[in-house]
Amino acid sequence: MKNRKVVLFLLVSLVGLSGLGCARKNESPTPLVSDLVEKNVSVNTFSGNQNAVSLEVTLAKSALLGREFLYGGSLQFSSLKEDNETTALMAIALGQFPARFRLNPNSLLLETDGSLAFESDVNQPSRLIHEFPLLRQTADTVTIAINSASPLLDTFLWGENQTVPKRASWLRSSQFVEGSELFLLESSVELADGSLAEFMETIQPREKIVPKGAQALLNDKELNPLAERFRFLDPGKVFIANPDKSVGGKIATKVAQRFFPAPGEPIRFWITRNAPEKYLNDVKNGIEAWNRYSKAMERSDLVRFEGYLPENVKVGDPRYNILVWDTVQDAGAAYASSSADPITGVISHTLVYIPLAWINEGHAFWERAQLTESKGEKRSQKLAALFRSRTVGGRALPVHCLDRSHMHVDLQSRKSPEEFGRSLLKGVVFHEIGHSLGLAHNFKGSLAFDPEQGGKTTTTSVMDYNQYHEEAGTFARLDTADGPILEYDRQIISVLYNEGKDLKKEDPELPACDDEEADSEEGGVDPLCVRYDIGKNPAERTLLGFALLSDSNQNVGRLASLPSSLARVAELLPEADSIKDKEALEEQFKAWKKTMRGTASIYISSSASSLAYLSSQAMRGLRVFKEGVFPESSDEVSFREQSLQVLENALSTESLPAASAEAWQKSTDAFVGWAMGTVAFNGLDEAAKTELTDLWKKEANELLATVNEIAFTRLRTRIWEALKHSEGAPFSFHQRQGEAMDLEAVVLNALREALKPTLKNEGKRSNEERKTALESLIGYKGIEQADRILSEIGDQLAQEIREAKDASLRQELRSLLNLIKK
Ligand SMILES: [Zn+2]
User: What's the predicted TM-score (pTM) here?
Assistant: First the structure.
């Protein structure tokens, strides 16, 4: 048992220096805390007895009751079990909840302010945040015990499935910062299945976070035209007093979230101490890239990178905005989350999660050079599902991004993966800090890109998921924060941080759309709201992607054709003189093969610029469009025609077109030619030389066959997925040469084709591919044409089962047939 007052005094001095600029001078007449004692206790957990703490706090009633507080939670780390799989998840700011204390005979309750969550002024059920046991009280003070995590955080562990009982909940550390009256409580919750989550909980008077006079900027299209034009982030719906006093009552609205730094003060960011020093400058440039906008406004810097997080500061301390560096290699997604006051939108703090994968993506990609789904990709999908299923305090998790590193792989990483990794890191930091500042995604930023004018205007916003080879243009050089002013970002930063003073009448109103609009299928889709696309017309860009395979002279912006990229693989070979022995020579052949495979993969099956991805997105062009989203200046018929051509091209392209296949041969010859000039090769006898060159040629041909099989299977499979039935966005009608065409019938016929066991070029179609197509087709059950096809496919499968020559094939076919019967 020890009294912590002395320690606390020192902490207060440190706080004074760190100055996030949020606190204001409004000392309550009586200090909130008059005594605080921390005891060491032991708690029985899954992994045995653990040290924990129990806090005994004496609080002044006058400074506690009737006062508004903000309760905040941040996830530090968690290990969640679901379907026998454990997922590690960390660094998420879970939100700020307006709260009040209420005294019961035996406990002190901390409850959410129900008036914000409900329209009624009378009936406002509150959520319990904490129930602290009451140890004793006087006329002026209460003494309570704090020794467990808030039950409000439990839903984070459980998700929708609350079947696993809670095993333990305890406090790992506590701290009270006097000046800002901030309680910092590190807590843990453990479930009976071993799922564990570690939190930082904070309790602080609301006025310490929300500066006096902080004006809410409504993120509400009906009340604020700026919310129509820009895509802000907000902490969720609140009921506030109607600004229209003549109507009165309360309205449901949303408030844009942003920082409120003191005048002249930048918003400061730190990074966790495990981040390698050699990347700090790239992180700094990524963060401070936002200062190009404050400079343009002739204002002091908007943001500042402060380097490593001070030693004793914990993740989730609301006085620090932290980039959390994770050393996990294949955790392929970065994300940002912020906690904000829902009434004013004032952000207390932000957490940005950056996995090492961003630095490693260049190396890792050329190492695996995969043609199919990667580990990182699977993990990203898992994360996305977890984020969707979790809530805290009835709100969705405030995670604003899930940018996947593997989507950014690019040819430019072939030569220098390290430089590529640094550039990618800087780019993702730039993007994530945008979320921290209150910017939502704008997936229409890249519509500004005109492939015919390659490289001039890439995007109007770094808040799009842009393709790497174009996004690199958002910085002037590798070692700088400088770069072009992106117009949409300039405008929204002015609205959030300079009262919109830099928004001139003649400034263009730029197209914008966020995640909700990208995912929405209510009343149709928005075919121009596409993640990771590029170009003013996504369908046309995808068609160019096919031309990139078949025409050596085609290029799209900075991206050259596949034949010319394959031809250049041989340029990456080292000096022939340096290869002294046969092992070194064989190593070079292996590396050459990987580069060939990876290069083809970038164009066809992996990355954001691959046909697999772009074609799947282009299928949106065949569906019904949401009213008002398709620009009147564009030609809808030709857009649908291009989308349809994408489908037709994808179905007729089953292997690399002639130009790419020839380039493959040429590159093979170039490798053999280079090898012949090496010391190692010349040291071999004639028979060994012939044997080796024959082997190389044979293996190069086999690799080409593998690329054809796997990469194009992946391309088609992505399309079958994209043809799923959607109630809200069915396939539309189209005019082809004046004739009406039912696109749903076209889609169903394509799915029927996809279920044939052989390809047009007589190759075998994988049963995995057939399964995906069948799952999509089954979604159309009840539609006459689909039912007919399904019954036809059923008969066909039954026959294949009878003719099957081995047990595992028969099993695969049976499971397909069972899908139909279900
Ligand atoms: Zn994002």
Answer: 0.91
